[in-house]
Amino acid sequence: MSSSASLEETHSDPTTSWWRTIFPPAQWIPAYQRNWLTSDLVAGITLAAYAVPVSLAYATLAGLPPQVGVYGYLLGGLGYALFGSSRHLAIGPTSAISLLVGASVATMAGGDPVLYTQIATLAGFMVALLCLLAWVFNLSTLTNFISETILLGFKAGAALSIAATQLPGLLGVPGGGSHFFARIYRSFFSLVMPT
């Protein structure tokens, strides 16, 4: 039997096809070319130069210690490298998610930093479980029912909320406030009438 015939049998085997679907690196590793390595190293270093400060900032935005952002970015990237289907997609935290985690976990933790970190970690694992279930049941088609207007409103709201959170640091004044308008008022009041 020729090697090409055995290769065709391997690709037509349902078990092998299922494995290659579950573990996408099994598809692209055999086709990887050595001359791509230099470009991939440059791309990896460039992504790391971007990802490290961004992950530190997003962890701070979520109210977590900065190193948690690096761990989250690293674990998310490794998980997607092993089980993701796109070679061109970069996975990591986003400002909107960090802000949502920070806002929701703060009320549950009641000021306890250890409990805060534990709840945020549990939230991360629960989201991973939900993503796994969404993949198993092919729920990605549900995103077609979310209108562009809703997504635009969510992005604009997240941008304004993040700006209000970072405004005290930009102006060099003490921040605070539990919601958008309170943060804006306190920032400008501290700027106009410093203590």
Task: Chart the SSEs and their pairings.
Elements: H1 3-12, H2 14-22, H3 25-28, H4 37-61, H5 66-83, H6 95-109, H7 113-136, H8 148-171, H9 180-192
Helix pairs in contact: 4-5, 4-6, 6-7, 8-9
If you had to describe this structure to a student in words, what would you say it looks like?
The chain has 195 residues and is mainly α. The chain folds into two domains: 33-142; 146-195, no CATH class. Helix content is 73%, strand content 0%. It is built from nine helices and no strands. Residues 1-10 have low confidence and may be disordered.
How do you describe this structure in short?
The protein has 195 residues and is mainly α. It has helices at residues 3-12, 14-22, 25-28, 37-61, 66-83, 95-109, 113-136, 148-171, 180-192.
Round the mean pLDDT to the nearest integer and report it: 82
What's the story with the biggest beta sheet?
none
- Distance linking N and C termini: 86 Å
Name the structural class.
Answer: mainly alpha
Rounded Rg: 22 Å
Task: Outline the low-pLDDT stretches.
Answer: 1-10
- Summed up, the helix count is 9
What is the domain tally? 2
Estimated share of beta-strand residues = under 5%
| Annotation, overall tally of beta strands | 0
Task: Sketch the topology as an H/E string, one letter per element.
Answer: HHHHHHHHH
Index terms:
195 residues, mainly alpha, 9 helices, 73% helix
